[in-house]
Amino acid sequence: MITGGAGGIGRFLAEAFQSAGDRVVLVDLPGEKLDAAGAELNAPTAGIDITDPQAVAAAVADIAHEHGPIGVLVNNAGILHLHGDVLTLPVADYESTIRVNILGTFAVTQAVAAHMVGVGTRGAIVNISSIGGRQPTPGMGAYETSKAAVDAQTRWAAIELAAHGIRVNAVAPGPVDTPMMKMGMPDGSPMREAWLARIPLRQMADPAQVAAAAVFLASDGAADITGVSLPVDGGQLLA
C-alpha cells in the first residue's frame, strides 16, 4: 500500500515494488491523476483523503478484504508547496502542512499497523521523510518541521510495534530529481547550481534510488533494521 501513489515519487515506488514481485495498491486523492496512475501501472487504486481517519480505516479494511493482508505500507503522501519564512508564513498554510504530512501519516500508520497486528502480519512500514528534517533551508520551515516529526513518528512506531514484529523505518531524500524538479530547475540554471553546490556528490537524488532504498528497508534483507531514517542525499547532510 503506497500513499501518494499518483505522484512522481509514488510511481517510482510502485514500479520498484512491482519489480520485486509485490502486488501494489496505490492510494491518493480521488481523481483523474490517480486513475491514470493505476491504469499506467496496472495497479488497483483507492481514492481517499489521508487526513480523514474514518476514510483511512475504511480504505484499509477494503484493501485487505479485496487484496489480502497488507504486508508493507509506504507513507509517501505529503505536501511541499506551501512555503514562507517564519515572519510571513500564514498559520493556515502551516496547519495544512501539519495535517497532511504529520497527522495524515499518523492516521495511515495507525490504521495499517492495527490491521497488521490484528491478522498477525510481521510487516514493514516505510515513511518517506526528508533530510530537511535535520538541515534547514530558508523558506521551507513548515515542510521541514513536518518531516522532523515524521522521523520522530518513525522512531515512536518502531519501538512500540517491535513487539508485534513490525519494522518501521524512513527514507530521507535530499532534493529529488523528478520531472517537475527538472522543469523548475533545468540543467545549468543558477537555482540548480546553487542546490548542487550543497551536495558533495554534486547530484540530486534519482527517484529510482529513493524507491530502491524503500524496497530494501521493506525487504527481508533489512530484517534487523528498525527505527532508522536513511538519507539518500548525495552526502548533503555532511556539508
Automatic annotation (TrEMBL):
InterPro entries assigned to the protein according to its UniProt record, in alphabetical order: NAD(P)-bd_dom_sf, SDR_fam
SUPFAM superfamilies: NAD(P)-binding Rossmann-fold domains (SSF51735)
Protein name: SDR family oxidoreductase
Any Pfam family hit: adh_short_C2
GO molecular function, one term: oxidoreductase activity, acting on the CH-OH group of donors, NAD or NADP as acceptor
Lineage top rank: taxon: Bacteria
This protein's record includes keyword Oxidoreductase: yes
Organism: Microbacterium protaetiae
Family: Belongs to the short-chain dehydrogenases/reductases (SDR) family.
